[in-house]
């Protein structure tokens, strides 16, 4: 069971919930940049939340299905076509043998997740199917998709598709014309309006920066630079300076750490971030807001709102409640 | 470190004793198998706990809980001396590989042979593995070999490069940029995701650098 890649798109990689428990030997978690969208896409086709899906970036792939499959595309709003007709987003859609799915381009946001019932079946590496391109392992031979690739799916992908689709057919929301449902999960991470507001706590080295830089970080609008990638978003704006330039020991970094190299241009560390780093950290982004930041394309704008650890926890609980209430409706659909 | 990781620092200077205590602490924490902890990362002079911020058992508030946990584990931690392995790392210190050796000869007023001898003599210690998969920060360098990082980093350090800066040695698993001075190269594969364990080095390992000739390098490489 596989999908043929006619065109790979700008950067299409296999990603799952991430590679855990190996940061002490320098192995970064990787995984979906927007974990919320991955969880939704998987749930919509009846998969486990952290199963492997395709992460598509800004310009998506052109795919040919070699058998029936149940798919869902979530995250950024993409112009996507199934055999030329608009593909409905954020819901399960039955794709038939020989069908062509073109994920054309992002309209709002930057990254979407294409989940397939049964999951993407590339070989797990160190417990995960996530692609880590810098060290060339995971996913499709540790690289982005290429033209002519045959992306392996679960052996039972077609029978899973039929069985799960049959359950959808018995529901009131079923829409036979679309081979889908008239119901969708909410888009919780799309940047509807820019600059987006992302909450951040003061970082470990916040007080080493001069007063103007401390103020500027939380006051100005930052622009995501073109040289941003899955490792980090470089933020263009004022140069941030420290009172004294002392060398800092290399120490652990995490998803959402905002570090400032000597040039003064901050970098927000994203899914493929290095596990340790020696640059001072001015801020740490609230975990609940990282998936929304991940939806900015280069050129996108963001402002940082100061928050406390307690407030970051509250943001997480609110987001979790919204995700869970959407997922409850889904469970009803698949039961 | 934000709401998905906690970092506890045990000093701001790097010393072997503190670092070994951290390795013992990491082992004790690992033994607890707490489901809400994803990663335990002993670093040069502190330890990081990465948590699953959505785990139902995640303690709230997290900071006092982690502090108590660290204190408890610190008390129960054994001597790390008993836990560490010894890794022998063959290194060819020829100028073909030791791209900065001649510069160091001038800077340190030591002969090339003397640099290699002083580097290979002591038993070193892996203080931390990080930055990229399997890249060790190794302490225990002879202070006579101490040089600051290079003012202009190299855009590519060759795979297997053995390089020094300050009081540490690094071995580069991948071709990446780097600002350390290259004194040699190992034929060993530092990181291989298909190998068990994938990383040649783990935090706390003892490291012995074993000088080898160019011919031996070629033989081991093939």
Biggest sheet of chain B, in brief?
7 strands, mixed
Low-confidence stretches of chain B: none
Number of strands of chain A: 20
Look at the helices and sheets of chain B and give the structural class: alpha+beta
Question: What sort of overall outline of chain A do the alpha carbons produce when their principal axes are compared?
Answer: globular
Overview of the molecule:
- The complex is a heterodimer of chains A (335) and B (222).
- Chain A is of the alpha+beta class and 335 residues long.
- Chain A has two domains: 2-189, no CATH class; 196-319, Cyclophilin-like (Cyclophilin, Beta Barrel).
- Chain A is built from five helices and 20 strands.
- In chain A, the strands form four sheets. In chain A, strands 1, 2, 3, 4, 5, 6, 7, 8 and 9 form a nine-stranded antiparallel beta sheet that branches. In chain A, strands 12-19-16-17-14-13-20 form a seven-stranded mixed β-barrel. In chain A, strands 10-11 form a two-stranded antiparallel ribbon.
- Chain A starts with a strand and ends with a helix.
- The mean pLDDT of chain A is 95.
- Chain B has 222 residues and is of the alpha+beta class.
- Chain B folds into two domains: 5-82, Gyrase A, domain 2 (2-Layer Sandwich), CATH 3.30.1360.40; 86-221, Beta Barrel (Cyclophilin), CATH 2.40.100.10.
- Helices cover 26% and strands 28% of the residues of chain B.
- Chain B contains five helices and twelve strands.
- Chain B has a seven-stranded mixed beta sheet with strand order 4-12-5-6-9-8-11. A three-stranded antiparallel beta sheet of chain B has the order 1-3-2, with helices on one face.
- In chain B, strand 5 (124-129) and strand 6 (136-139) form a beta hairpin.
- In chain B, helix 1 (16-32) packs across helix 2 (62-76).
- The longest helix of chain B has 17 residues, at 16-32.
- The N and C termini of chain B lie far apart (44 Å).
- The mean pLDDT of chain B is 93.
- Classes of the chains: A alpha+beta (335), B alpha+beta (222).
- Chains A and B meet through strand 15, strand 18, strand 19 and helix 5 of A and strand 1, strand 2 and strand 3 of B.
């Amino acid at each position: 069971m596989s999908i043929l890649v006619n065109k790979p798109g700008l950067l299409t990689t296999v990603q799952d919930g991430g590679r855990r428990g190996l940061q002490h030997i320098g192995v970064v978690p990787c995984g979906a940049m927007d974990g919320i969208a991955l969880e939704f896409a998987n749930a919509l086709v009846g998969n486990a939340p952290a199963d492997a899906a395709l992460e598509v970036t800004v310009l998506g792939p052109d795919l040919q299905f070699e058998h029936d499959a149940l798919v869902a595309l979530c995250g950024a709003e993409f112009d996507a076509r199934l055999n030329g007709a608009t593909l409905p987003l954020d819901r399960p859609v039955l794709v038939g043998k020989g069908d062509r799915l073109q994920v054309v381009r992002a309209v709002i946001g930057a990254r979407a997740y294409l989940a397939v019932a049964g999951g993407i079946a590339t070989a797990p590496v160190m417990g995960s199917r996530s692609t880590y391109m810098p060290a060339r392992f995971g996913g499709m031979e540790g690289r982005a998709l290429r033209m002519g690739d045959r992306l392996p799916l679960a052996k039972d992908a077609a029978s899973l598709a039929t069985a799960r689709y049959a359950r959808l057919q018995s529901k009131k929301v079923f829409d036979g014309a679309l081979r889908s449902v008239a119901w969708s999960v909410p888009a919780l991470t799309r940047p509807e309006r820019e600059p987006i507001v992302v909450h951040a706590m003061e970082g470990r080295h916040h007080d080493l920066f001069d007063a103007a830089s401390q103020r500027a970080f939380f006051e100005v609008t930052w622009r995501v630079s073109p040289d941003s990638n899955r490792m980090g978003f470089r933020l263009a704006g004022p140069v941030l300076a420290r009172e004294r330039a002392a060398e800092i020991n290399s120490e652990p970094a995490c998803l959402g750490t905002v570090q400032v190299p000597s040039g003064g241009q901050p970098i927000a560390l994203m899914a493929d971030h290095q596990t340790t780093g020696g640059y001072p950290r001015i801020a740490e982004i609230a975990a609940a807001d990282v998936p929304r930041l991940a939806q900015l394309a280069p050129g996108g704008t963001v402002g940082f709102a100061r928050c406390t650890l307690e407030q970051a926890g509250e943001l997480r609980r609110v987001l979790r409640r919204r995700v869970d209430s959407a997922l409850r409706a889904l469970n009803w659909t698949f039961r | 470190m934000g709401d998905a990781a906690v970092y506890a620092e045990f000093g701001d200077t790097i010393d072997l004793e503190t670092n070994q205590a951290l390795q013992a602490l990491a082992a004790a924490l690992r033994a607890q198998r707490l489901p809400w902890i994803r990663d335990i990362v002993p670093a040069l002079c502190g330890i990081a706990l990465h948590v699953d911020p959505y785990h139902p058992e995640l303690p709230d508030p997290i900071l006092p809980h982690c502090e108590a946990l660290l204190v408890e584990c610190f008390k129960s931690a054994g001597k790390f001396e008993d836990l560490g392995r010894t890794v022998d790392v063959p290194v060819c210190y020829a100028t073909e590989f030791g791209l900065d050796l001649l510069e160091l000869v001038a800077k340190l007023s030591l002969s090339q042979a003397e640099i290699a001898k002083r580097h290979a003599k002591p038993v070193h210690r892996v203080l931390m593995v990080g930055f990229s998969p399997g890249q060790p920060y190794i302490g225990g360098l002879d202070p006579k070999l101490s040089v600051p990082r290079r003012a202009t980093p190299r855009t590519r350090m060759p795979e297997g490069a053995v390089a020094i800066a300050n009081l540490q040695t690094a071995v580069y698993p991948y071709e990446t940029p780097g600002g350390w001075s290259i004194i040699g190269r190992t034929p060993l594969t530092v990181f291989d995701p298909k190998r068990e364990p994938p990383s040649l080095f783990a935090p706390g390992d003892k490291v012995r650098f074993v000088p080898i000739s160019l011919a031996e390098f070629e033989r081991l490489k093939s």
